[in-house]
Amino acid sequence: MRTPIARAPQDTRGTWKTYLALVAVLAVSAFPLYWMFVVATSTDAAVNSIPPTVTPGDQLFVNLHEVFSMQNVYFTASLINSVIVAGVVTATTLFFCSLAGFAFAKLRFPARNALMFVVILTLTVPTQLGVVALYILMGKLGWNGTLLAVIAPFMVSAFGVFYMRQFVAHAVPDELIESARLDGALTLRVYWSVVVPAIRPALAVLGLLTFVATWNEFQWPLITLNGTEYPTSMVALSDLASGNYVIYRRVLAGALAATVPLIVLLLIGGRQIVRGIMEGAVKS
């Protein structure tokens, strides 16, 4: 019987070429943010100069004051509305998607696989196809022009249900659920006390992705909230960029103000995203 030969641990450190490529990708990805900051801090003369300036100016607070003081844009209200909409949609998506994912993964009921197939099938349907029907439905409910029209259609997502179903199936052992049932726990108690603590990394990933996607949503809020005093930040930015003459320093100052919350959120929760993705990859 042959004695297994011990292999030396492989060196997983990258070469200088790898780091150079990563730095190049980072620079290309971060340049639009840097250029937005440069324009947001510059004057009209600096923005229109040839060659364009590539260093930040000192007019950031002046430009932000102009943006927030414009009477027909309601930028302050739009940021508050975006926080409300993104927060409510994220909270409801986490609750409903995790509950549905738990049901599809661990509960037995008729047509479970067929219903899951329908959920996955909806991912292939472009959202633009349902805009007219959704607008008519919101009109019949009297919600057009209100935040309810932006919140209600996105309280649950097919991707969230599928993602949570996959994570629950691998992260929560059947034995753990059976043990909780033997202790007298009902289904909702099993979900809250057993499933939720086990899927916290996945909840963090889905929550961050949902918040960012809802914050950046433009088409549907533009349709249902356009012309009202209750826009979201993306609609307010489109108002800043409308007109025969666009003042780009105002537009990008507003874009900077609308981007800062997302950057802060990603800096705080970015580690949770990586952790959730890595745990999902290891479990699968």
Automatic annotation (TrEMBL):
Coiled coil: none annotated. InterPro entries: MetI-like, MetI-like_sf. The keyword Membrane applies. It comes from the Bacteria. The chain crosses the membrane at residues 20-37, 79-102, 114-137, 143-163, 190-215, 247-268. GO terms for biological process: transmembrane transport. Keywords: Cell membrane, Membrane, Transmembrane, Transmembrane helix, Transport. Residues 79-269 form the ABC transmembrane type-1 domain. One of its GO terms (cellular component) is plasma membrane. It is a multi-pass membrane protein. Belongs to the binding-protein-dependent transport system permease family. PANTHER family: ABC TRANSPORTER PERMEASE PROTEIN MG189-RELATED (PTHR43744:SF12), ABC TRANSPORTER PERMEASE PROTEIN MG189-RELATED-RELATED (PTHR43744). This is Sugar ABC transporter permease. It comes from Mangrovihabitans endophyticus.
